[in-house]
């Protein structure tokens, strides 16, 4: 498992369109991906989970990735966010 803090730079945060794109792209990785924000964890492969998190531009989230392709998944995620 790898963990890293990432600052969200997506303008307007993870609203419907970027959250959908994120979930769609993360689905090609077999690793589990989780965001932690304000002591709560969210499944990054779940559109409902992401929308419920209300992640905004400028927030710092902790990303946890666990699985066989965790490094590739984290690298892609950092570029996207």
UniProtKB/TrEMBL annotation:
It comes from the Bacteria. PROSITE patterns: PTS_HPR_DOM. Residues 1-81 form the HPr domain. Gene3D superfamilies: HPr-like. Keywords: Cytoplasm, Phosphotransferase system. It is found in: Cytoplasm. Pfam families: PTS-HPr (PF00381). CDD domains: PTS-HPr_like. NCBIfam families: PTS_HPr_family. This is HPr family phosphocarrier protein. The lineage of its organism: Bacteria, Bacillati, Bacillota, Bacilli, Bacillales.
């Amino acid at each position: 498992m790898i963990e890293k803090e990432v600052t969200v730079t997506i303008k307007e945060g993870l609203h419907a369109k970027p959250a959908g794109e994120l979930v769609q792209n993360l689905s090609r990785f077999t690793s589990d991906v989780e965001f932690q924000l304000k002591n709560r964890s969210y499944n990054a492969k779940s559109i409902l989970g992401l929308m419920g998190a209300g992640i905004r531009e400028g927030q710092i989230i902790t990303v946890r990735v666990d699985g066989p392709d965790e490094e590739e998944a984290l690298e892609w995620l950092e570029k996207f966010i």
